[in-house]
Design brief:
Layout lengths: L3 E3 L6 E5 H6 L1 H9 L3 E6 L2 E6 L37 H7 L7
Parallel strand pairs: 2-3
Antiparallel strand pairs: 1-2, 3-4
InterPro entries: YefM-like_sf
Organism: Leptolyngbya boryana NIES-2135
Protein name: Toxin-antitoxin system, antitoxin component, PHD family protein
Amino acid sequence: MTDTTILAYPPMVTHVTLPEATANITQLLDRVIQGEEIIISQDGQAVAHISPANRDRKPHSPENSPRVPGQYAGKLIIPDDFNAPLPDDILNSFLNPADPQ
């Protein structure tokens, strides 16, 4: 198994290919149980992220709270010109000057 480990604030993150993950799933899950995160890639693209289930969970944090449909009804205003083209000066600030136009 190719083991490319990226140093990160705990936990460590290991990248493996899909065939490697399939062949070594038990060992990978043992590593997850120890606190490691595993990213599985196929054709160079990440397709899955396996991480410990209960690590550092904050039960009442916004990212763990269920979404409540309509909780912002009447509080958010989307202007009529929301989808209008951007002015050239703003649009140009997003473009890479090295890219051909």
